[in-house]
Amino acid sequence: VPKKCQKAREHFGTVRTQLESLKTKFPTDQYYRFHEHWRFVLQRLVFLAAFVVFLESETLVTREAVAEILGIEADRERGFHLDIEDYLSGVLTLASELARLAVNSVTAGDYSRPLRISTFINELDSGFRLLNLKNDSLRKRYDGLKYDVKKIEEVVYDLSIRGLNKEAAGGAGGEK
Which ranges does the record mark as transmembrane (predicted)? Predict the structure, then answer.
């Protein structure tokens, strides 16, 4: 995994070059006029950066760290930046991918990873519940997080029932 993460980080160099070129194609004060042209790509790049950081450290990447990885600004006032909604959408995509990773980890015989993913996703869900999301695409994406939480809980439950998480069951079993 570390080698794959390093290879992914190398690809972000190309991304930075492309985004640097994009910055020169429109006036800086018209970011939102053209935002729809690159919104989806930025959300996907946030997901990729967040996934790499999660695989490396099992932590959530900050918006500022993603902006640094992509070579763009975190602050709106500085021009081409990482919009907060794009960041949050990318993080929600991460949650869906981690639900898949939890299932695939069990298939690969890694029974402790789903427990760690469950803890991470539950903390992420708690954070999103604090937000007052409007009835827009971000809200709909957040609604999908509930299904990801449920899917991961089912994986952890199955591991508990089958006794496959004995080394981690002491800490996780007491929390539920």
Answer: none
